[in-house]
Design brief:
This protein has one domain. Helix content is about 0%, strand content about 55%. The protein has strands at about 20-25, 30-35, 40, 45-60, 65-75, 80, 85-90, 95-100, 100-110, 115, 115-120, 130.
């Protein structure tokens, strides 16, 4: 029997059937403070602040100008603002992000555009901050 190697980190799957999912559809613009405890899919625009304790999925056509907090996230669209993810963040090749990113674990696909700092890990004092566009910057 052939055993294939297991991936180091499991894939995040959007639209979890175990809870309700909120969809901000293409053509819809939300402004102000948005909070959720369920999965959220953004296909339209969000301006202000955004948080969910669950999974955030940002589609390639989405435009976000907000500070974002999420339990987990898959980002494929355009974002301006700081992003904090409690667990895993997947950045897809169509993503364009301007802002600082903090996550426990992160994967970045080739083609993604990032302009800001990355902080990876659960212990901020022991984590090195790295300038994405420019010279590395140590920060303790």
């Amino acid at each position: 029997m052939f055993n294939s190697p297991k991936p180091a980190m499991p894939e995040i799957r959007p639209l979890s059937p175990k809870n309700n999912t909120t969809v901000i559809a293409n053509g819809v613009r939300v402004e102000g403070e948005f909070k959720s405890q369920s999965d959220v899919v953004i296909e339209g625009e969000v301006h202000g602040s955004f948080s969910t304790t669950s999974l955030l999925t940002v589609s390639p056509e989405a435009r976000i100008k907000a500070d974002v907090n999420a339990g987990e996230a898959i980002i494929s669209g355009t974002m301006e603002g700081n992003i904090t993810v409690a667990r895993r963040l997947d950045i897809k090749p169509t993503a364009k992000i301007t802002g600082d990113i903090t996550a426990e674990t992160i994967s970045i696909d080739a083609g993604a555009v990032l302009n800001g700092h990355l902080q990876i890990g659960t212990k901020p004092a022991a984590v090195e901050k790295t300038k994405v566009n420019g010279a590395p910057h140590a920060h303790a």
